[in-house]
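Hey everyone, long-time lurker, first post.

I ran two proteins through the pipeline my lab uses and got sequence/structure pairs for each. Pasting them in order. The first:
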Amino acid sequence: MELDGRVAVITGGTRGVGAGIARSFLEAGADVVVCARRPPDRPVTAAGRTAAHVPLDLREPAAVQDFFDTFARRHGRLDCLVNNAGGTPYRPLADGAAERHARVFELNLLAPLTASLAAYPLLRAARGSLLMVGSVSGSRPSPGTAAYGAAKAGLEHLARSMAVEWAPEVRVNTLVLGMVRTELAHLHYGDAAGIAAVAATVPLGRLAEPADVGAAAVFLASGRAGYVSGASLLVHGGGERPAFLDAATVNKED
């Protein structure tokens, strides 16, 4: 399999997109460790194999360093780090002080930087790869989640700079995600009808599944992407149909 003998760490890998990436890595033959503050509701398994879980708050630099020091002693190598942990509540900018928005930056930008720096010696030794999980919110207006969008824009830029600084030993790429159907999709899009309506706005006609993201992550971590670094891979089903096309009064069928 594509990742036989590889060892991977996936942050926030206990549910949603992160669990989907973890399952795809397991299916591809990798040994997987997922880290998150809380354990998964059920073990993350695939292909008869199970990801190990280690509790970790990625906003605590000392704990992150200790995690990777312990990881090095236990596993001896690290071939891929996937910086997936992140997220944000809905909060218009004027509804919160700068300090509250700063916590969104802390989780979505500073935490991936902290983990990447702690993992760098291991990745360099293995000539491994680093994946950032970005978002289309980083390249378009993101009302209600502006701090999140700004953090994801910064994350993508950080990955491109890392790809240059850390070459040729470490490849660094970003998965730029659109809307994904996870167990928390109802919190973002509403009930089944709401999810279906949102999915209809995607050119491919559906939301991504976590497995779609996982397949893209496996590709970027594998030897098939050995000459891919500093790239941003769009995993968004074609993006969004421009609103002006539906608003315009020309080129309409009778």
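...and the second, right after it:
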Amino acid sequence: MSVFDPDFAGADVVPSPNHGGRREGRSPDMIVLHYTGMPTADAALDWLCRPESEVSSHYMVYEDGRIVQLVPESRRAWHAGKSSWMGEIDINSASIGIEIANPGHPGGLPPFPEKQIAAVVELCQDCGARWQIAPERVLAHSDVAPIRKVDPGENFPWAALHAAGVGHLVEPAPITGGRFFQRGDSGQPVEALQSMLAYYGYALDIHGEFDARTEGVVAAFQRHFRPEKVDGVADSSTIDTLHRLLTSLPRLGS
């Protein structure tokens, strides 16, 4: 692909061939954040630009805050894979994909530098304003592909983004004792939990059985919204945090 003008004024353009048209003329109304999960940013950028990788993103953010644009926002980058949110299964057509240079879980989950997060915030603000993306539709890869993906990970500073108006968040409830639900449990309380997670957007069937899929979705929720403990067990802290997130959704009129 030839060089194009960046959508974000501060980005350097490094074209990737891995993209296509957004299906049915869809405009993006989501932002999906990833970590690269590779030892170096340059290695990740090289991979995202190789035809044989069949992966790409719209942007990649280096540790020092440098932003590279690989695919025009008008095009469908190949970053989300098999994923779903609120019934939408073509997340690539619905979203802007942002890769954040970080070795991730394979590299021990090192912290994200402040300059990098400041650049991510500015980029998300710019994309969000351009496409009128609601805060609650700034998501983790692990949200739209639970179990299969765990990035950008439990160390990602969602609170710093939320403080700048990016993303939907509430203060996580403290971890205490009390009743909890886990793999093998069943009944109406589990069905209620599944209903709440599905209403928020997670791809989860509502059947009242706390199965492996439910455990994986609970873990994905914790990784984003209650990262102190990510174990897939729906304790009182997890359920309270989820309930307060739901009641603060603009679509509920609160």
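Reply from user beta_strand_b:
Welcome! Quick read of the second one: The longest helix spans residues 114-131. The first strand starts at residue 12 and ends at 13.
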